[in-house]
Amino acid sequence: MQPTYLPWSGYFNLIASVDHFVFLNNVQYERRSWQSRNRIMVSGAEHILTVPVERCPQKTLLDKVLISYAEDWRSRHWLTLKSAYGKSRYANEMLALLEPHLCGTLERNLACFTEMIIRDIVQALAITTKLHRATTLPANGMRSERLASLCRSLSCDSYISPEGSRQYLEEDNFQERFGIKLHYQEYNPSPYAQMGDKPFVTHLSIVDVIANLGLDGVKAYIKETNGNS
């Protein structure tokens, strides 16, 4: 999976489901994508937090994209999170995870920044999956060829894919062509108690889940499959 900013719970369900997880940090950067933004809850409504980046050519790879600090967006994100979740039961657990990244040393590289946050959350959730960067592995090719090459570099004979990649993997005959068993992630989390009396909003950033359920609650939550624990 590409490293994304404050990803949703399904991202961590996928990490917890495998032996090896690879951050695809050498794919093309896409503006206005989850690579640099995500959704939280503010006063009962969806709100998007975006990491600004410096101008770059259209086909720039993700690991070459630099964060812009022309404005103090980190303080804005930090204050927004504190205001939005300050009264949540487990706000302190969530804020403690993000404070080093939003209040500490500046990181210029977008992929490194988002990956570091993900790694800290993975550690806090006691997930033992081995994490890798695609740029550190001997892999080549495009689309399915690259995925198969990554699997082989880690001596893996099975690949678990997000549902969104099903179409191109089946078009490429991934399993038959490369002899690697193909599975699809099954994750459809149940509603949980969010702040306020508004209808439940699904697929928000993991920070919403942590603030409302706490780290121990999230450990169980990310193990859900099709709404069942």
Short description:
The chain has 229 residues and is α/β, with parallel strands linked by helices. It has helices at 9-16, 73-85, 91-103, 110-124, 143-153, 166-171, 174-178, 206-221; strands spanning 20-23, 37-42, 45-50, 130-133, 158-161, 181-184. α3 (91-103) crosses α8.
Summarize the structure in words:
The protein has 229 residues and is an alpha/beta fold. It has a domain at 9-140 and 201-221. The chain contains 8 helices and 6 strands. Strands 1-4 form a two-stranded parallel sheet. A two-stranded antiparallel ribbon has the order 2-3. Strands 5-6 form a two-stranded parallel sheet. A hairpin with a 2-residue loop joins strand 2 and strand 3 (45-50). The longest helix is centred in the C-terminal third of the chain and has 16 residues, at 206-221.
- Based on CA atoms alone, the radius of gyration comes out at 18 Å
Question: Strand tally, please?
Answer: 6
Name the structural class: alpha/beta
Oligomeric assembly: single chain
Mean pLDDT: 94
Q: Hey, roughly how much beta strand do the residues contain?
A: 5-15%
- Helix and strand run: HEEEHHHEHEHHEH
Number of helices: 8
Widest β-sheet, arrangement of strands: 1-4
Described by strand count, sense and barrel closure, the largest sheet is: 2 strands, parallel
Using the alpha-carbon principal axes, give the shape: globular
Report helical residue fraction. 25-40%
Low-confidence regions = none
Alpha carbon gap, first and last residue: 24 Å
